[in-house]
């Protein structure tokens, strides 16, 4: 589905050159001074130590380190936040070795390290792994049973979080793993009014390697000569050959309507210059796939390319800290056929304002899992999210002998031992 670059029509070229020249002429110092201002809350900005205490369970190696050593590729895929968050918490100032003073309990389980030979995460064994881990925690320490997990949090960065399936219909049939329904889920998935989004969940960005992106930075004064950019699947031929279910048809609609539009540089090919190309583009399409999100959202922000978010009812990562409405363009899935007119009608001053905000360091930092961690990065945003949920409300601590969760609930295949 690649295509040859064709000459720009005169009108389209004029629009693009006007925007590109204005962007290139914008002073670099002005970009550097731009700062994101939103309702960030700043719960931990002044001094995280003493305001939040997290107890990290020491789990048998089979739940994390052995899974990682079996296939280290899970350090590099888009779900790797579960591994790096564990590493961060082990050395974080919020960690406590005294569980009696803990506000939150964390169980490090690397469910996304179960990979196919091609390196794609398989979520099918994840419920069994997680059930086994919860049972171990509940029988080894007294803290789970006091709340049945209501003061515990888990990283579940699968396509549909703790529903543990990459196809939405199957994920909805399974539902959130019953044993996690009182816990706080820290997950990439977020879609309003969806059975796989638990109330109180913390939506995080997918993992995108900060060092890899840093290595591909180009001169910030480079003109943005591409109007709309996208590289990725339009049809998932292996799972949805008709193209109507994958991405709810939105990606297929992009291809069918704009494959020959010279304003749109779109293809399934993934060139070695992918990151450089994003830095030369004004708009980067961020359509849903099997799930509403993808690493493109992070990449677009990091490279200053205005994200065009096509995913109805999406819950964006750290939405209380990042003013997504100010730095992005939202297009309803049903409006994809009008994408060209929607983007060309955006006033130039609005485009420049979004680009200045994207050039600020704080919004980029908030979406990245740096190693080592940096102030204001995604790890800090997770801590902010946990801190905002304190103090724990009524109903968290159960009465002696009180039970809420049903250990025998769930699909028969999920109840098998792991």
UniProtKB/TrEMBL annotation:
Leader sequence segment: 1-25
GO molecular function, one term: glycosyltransferase activity
Coiled-coil zones: none
Residue ranges of every copy of the Exostosin GT47 domain listed in the record: 51-346
Cellular component terms per the entry's GO annotation: Golgi membrane
Keywords for the protein's UniProt record, in alphabetical order: Glycosyltransferase, Golgi apparatus, Signal, Signal-anchor, Transferase, Transmembrane
Keyword match Glycosyltransferase: yes
Membrane topology reported for the UniProt record: Single-pass type II membrane protein
Alphabetical list of PROSITE patterns matching this protein: PROKAR_LIPOPROTEIN (PS51257)
Subcellular localization: Golgi apparatus membrane
GO biological process: glucuronoxylan biosynthetic process; plant-type secondary cell wall biogenesis
Keyword Signal found: yes
Protein family (similarity comment): Belongs to the glycosyltransferase 47 family.
UniProt name for this protein: Exostosin GT47 domain-containing protein
